[in-house]
Amino acid sequence: MCFFLANATTNSMDTARPPAFPTRIFYLAAVLYAISLFVKLGEQPVYLEEPRRALIAMEMEEAGNWLVPRQLGAFYYRKPPVFNWMVMLSAKATGGYGRWALRLPTVFSLLATLLLLYSIGKRYEGPEFGRVWAALYAGSGAILFYFSLLGEIDLFYSFVTLGSMLAFFHFYQQKRYTQMFGWSYALAAVGLLTKGLPAIPFLGLTVLAWLAYEKRLKLLLAWQHGVGIGAFVAIAGGYLLAYHQYNSLDNYLADWLTESVGRTAVGNELGRTIGHLATFPLDTLKDMLPGSLLLLLFATRRDIWAKARQHPLVAFGLVVFAANFLVYWFSPGARQRYIYMLYPLLYSVGVLGWQYRGEAPAWREGVFGHIVLGLMVALCLGSLGLNAVPAFDFLEGRLLISLLGALAFGGLAFLVYQDRSRSLWALFFGLIAARLLFAFTVLPQRSQDSAGQRNTDIATAIYEIVGEEPLCLYEGGRVSYTVIYELDRRRERTVVFCDTLVPGAFIMVPADSFPAYRGLVDIPFHDGDFRLIEVPR
Length: 537
Description:
Blueprint: H1 23-38, H2 50-63, E1 70-71, E2 74-75, H3 82-94, H4 99-125, H5 127-138, H6 141-144, H7 154-173, H8 177-195, H9 199-213, H10 223-244, H11 250-261, H12 270-287, H13 292-298, H14 304-309, H15 312-329, H16 343-355, H17 362-385, H18 398-418, H19 423-446, H20 451-466, E3 471-474, H21 481-491, E4 496-498, E5 506-510, E6 521-523, E7 530-534
Parallel strand pairs: 3-4, 3-5
Antiparallel strand pairs: 1-2, 5-7, 6-7
C-alpha cells in the first residue's frame, strides 16, 4: 500500500531550532513502541466485537466460502468480509484462532499507519515533521491503551481509508492523475468491503473538498477520473456480483444502509443530536490526548491557517478533516473509533504549530513542559501505588514491576526537569513505559476478573461436559459471543442455530424454556439467561 513512498526525497522545514525528536532517539522509541504493542497481546479474554469477527472468519473457513459471511449458520449482513479475511490469514499464519490471531491484524495495521505517516510527513515536510506526526498518532490514548489491544475492524479500516486519502494527496502533488484517482478509489473500494457504505462519503468528501480548495474541480470531468471510478466498480461490484451467486443482495445492501443512516441525525431524537453536537468535538480532543496538547497550545494562534496554506500536506489535512468531521459531528450515533483516520489530519496542524513554537510566546512551551513533568511524576507515584491496590494482590512480582515503572517515569521526569526541550520525546517514552506497565498489570487482572474471563470460564465448563459431541444454540437466541468463540476455538468446529431439540445433542436454550430438562450449565447474559441441556437419544 505504501509503494508510492519508495522514491521519497526529503524537504526540510527551517524552524531555526534543534530537533525536538532526534533521529537516534526516535528510532529507539519506534522499536520499543513496536515491542510494547505485542507484549501480553493475548492476555486478556476476547470481548466486545472481537469474538464476532472470529466467529464469522471461522465459519467462512469451515464452509470453504470466503465470499459469504455467516454467523451461527445464518447469513450475516452488517459488515462485508475483508477484515474477516485478515483474521483468517492471521489464523493460518499463527496456527489457529487464538487471541493473538485475532489481534495481529490490528497491531500490523497500526504499525503500517505509522510508517505511512512518517514516510509522507518526511517527504513533504521534513524528517522532524514525519517523526512527530507518527509519534502523536502512536500515542493517542484511546488507541494505545484500548483499540490497539482488540481484534476489531477499526484500525485496519482507518489504515485503508487514510491510505486512500494520502494516496490522493501524494499523486496530486506529483500531477499523476491516473494514479491519483486509481489508487485512492481502489483503496476506498477495499474500505467499502471492510466496513460498508461510510467508505463512499470519506472518498467523495475528500476528493471534492481538496479539488474545490485547489480550484481544480474540472479534474472530475477528466478521463483519469473514469479510471478511478472503474477501479472502484471493478473491486466493489466484482465482489457483490460474486456474492449474488450465493445469496440475494437485497438484505445485504439494506443492512449496510441501515447501519449508516441509523447513526445520523435522521435516525435519532433531537435531544440526543444536540447533546452529540456539544460533546463530540470534546470527545475527539480527549481521545487524541496527549497529542491534542500540541493542538491546544501551539496551533491556537491567529496566523495558523496562513502558515498551513504554505504547507500543502497540512492544508490538505485541515481541509479534508473539516469536510469529513462535519458528517460525524452531526451524526449522534457516531463513535470516536469511526474517525481514527481523521486524527492524523488534525494532528498535522499541531505538528506545524510545534515546529513554529519559536515564534509563539515562551509560556506555551513552558506549559507543555510542566504538563509532561507533572504527568511523569503522577505516573511514577501511580506505579508505586499499585502495591496498595487489592485488585493486584494476585500479581506475582508486583513490587518489582511497580519499582521498574517508578524508575522509568522518575528518570523521565528528571530529564524533563533538567531540560524542557526534552519534553516531547520524554512524553513518548513515558507513553511506551505506561503501555508496558498496563500490559503487566491491568491485562493480567482482566484475565483474573472480567466479564470476558467469566464467559471464558462458562465456555470451559460447557466444553468439559460436551467435548466433541453435537452442540447448537436454540432458535436465534443470543448468548455472549465470547462463550461461542471459546467453544468454536477448542472444538475446531462452529456452533450454529437449531430450531428443534435434536436427539443426542447438547443445546443452549433460554433458561425458562423446556423445564423437563435438567440444566447442566447456567449461561447468564444481559439479553436473557440461557442454560445448557442435553436431549436424550
